[in-house]
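URGENT: need a sanity check before tomorrow's submission.

F., can you look over the Alanyl-tRNA synthetase class IIc N-terminal domain-containing protein record below? I want to be sure the sequence and structure line up before it goes out.
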Amino acid sequence: MSSEPSSSSTALPPTKLIHLTYEGNFQLECTAKVVSSRLIDEVENDKNDGNRKVEIILDTTAMHPQGGGQPTDIGTISITGDDCKDYVINVERVDIDRSSGIVTHKGTLSCLSDVKEEEKQAVDHDSTNLLPFGAGSEVKVTVDPENRRIVSECHTAGHVLDAAMARCGRIMPPTKVSDCVFIF
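Structure tokens as predicted:
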């Protein structure tokens, strides 16, 4: 079942980042294995809607983590649980620990299979709070292609703007776009 991420992330192996390879630069899907997973934000998980906030560490990912002023990829992680039901994690954020190379995907876990109301309540009120999958489970990672395109184009536009400013003799210090105000 669920395995808690270690308090010392150095105990886990670094995540393979497919987008850093020549072949994987534009790859929007991959298969991976769960290294670690856990429930997060227990207050949110008590809403009894069958969805749970989770974080999951995989051995491989096609998703770009947050960094360098660039937003994170979003997408899904699909998995068949130990209970033979189909689940999806709607990934809302991907972070990397630069010192260990470990990538953490954070999102909302939903069951796609038909679940009877009594089963749903039994899972929601399970005092062990275990996830229906654990280390070693195989998953499919899928990047949202439209979001990736928009983020990629904005990233490239930032480089073009930087080059144009440099040609004009105006060097801008590195800043996060989220910290900027543009007046047109």
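My own read: The chain is about 20% helix and 30% strand. Residues 9-144 form a domain with the Elongation Factor Tu (Ef-tu); domain 3 fold (CATH 2.40.30.130). If you see anything odd, call me.
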